[in-house]
Amino acid sequence: MAQKLSEYIPPRVWTWDEGDDGNKFANINRPTAGSREEKELPVGQHPLQLYSLGTPNGVKVTIMLEELLAAGHKGTEYDAWLINIMDGDQFGTGFVAANPNSKIPALMDHSVKGHPQRVFESGSILFYLAEKFDAFLPKSGAARAETMSWLMWQMGSAPYLGGGFGHFYAYAPFKIEYAINRFAMEVKRELDVLDKQLEKNEFMIGDELTIADFAIYPWYGGMARGLLYEAKEFLDVESYKHLRRWAKQLSERPAFQRGQLVNRPWDEEKGLKERHSAADFEGKV
Q: What fold does the segment set 141-253 form as a domain?
């Protein structure tokens, strides 16, 4: 039997109630954009300056940067600075200049002559780095089109997993059966999409590691490994055997292991608050 809820009638015009609604993120959410305080971003010694947090969206980029370094690409050393979203770091003037949407991650490329190039949105950063270093993106043809299709699939699908299922299952102040059922069904459909794709491919695009893998792994690989929202049993993730094989395979790559530790202050044992050189990982991987 479906859960019974009290009836809610939306007003003609929605207005923001500034009170605490019990949402974990209520203290930082507002219906307006822009900076809230004067705060410049730090700049390290490397051309690539990343401002991020070790959430799935941030991990996409640090995994790729570590894979680029492991492959020997010159110019890929980077500084990774912590943006603590619960403290509102994303609303400082410096970060808003890097990303007017105030979402992590944001990249500043100081190797660009004349003026540093800002790049925001995780998928855009992956694409930018792939083109800049001619790596992890097929140059043309069907493989390139397939890679871009799966990259865009992730960007469009993950909000159902995070902002939809994750929010109502783990963060909402009370459980709403309709919302959880709605997003659980969609997430399981997405997991099945990936499981079928990986049944016949080693990586997302055949036998070649690409930015599609970097984009999809932190969200869906994390879910397949039972790392997100304590929902492993609820979503029966063990039934997606091909997705789990791929997730395990990637999780064993040293670059993936390093990338997942960056900007992770809550992991006191292994996590790095900031990353400035390979030496920062000593004793952690």
A: Glutathione S-transferase Yfyf (Class Pi); Chain A, domain 2 (1.20.1050)
Q: Strand 78-82 relative to strand 48-52: parallel, antiparallel, unpaired?
A: parallel
Provide φ and ψ at 206, rounded to 5°. Answer: 65, -130
pTM of whole model > 0.90?
yes
| Distance in angstroms (rounded) separating the CA atoms of residues 59 and 36 | 26
Q: Which of 152, 172, 155, 174 has the alpha carbon at shortest distance from 164?
A: 172
Q: Which residues, 6+ apart, have CB-to-CB distance to 210 below 8 Å?
A: 136, 137, 138, 147, 203, 204
Burial 205-232 (b: 16+ CB within 10 A, else e): beebbbbbbbbbbbbbbbbbbbbbbebe
For residue 108, the 8-state DSSP code is E
- Segment 185-243, tens digit of pLDDT: 999 999 999 999 999 999 999 999 999 999 999 999 999 999 999 999 999 999 999 99
Find where tokens 């609303």 sit.
91
Domain 48-136+261-279 annotated CATH 3.40.30.10? yes
Does residue 73 contact residue 133 with C-beta atoms inside 8 Å?
Answer: yes
Q: Are 132 and 125 in contact (CB under 8 A)?
A: no
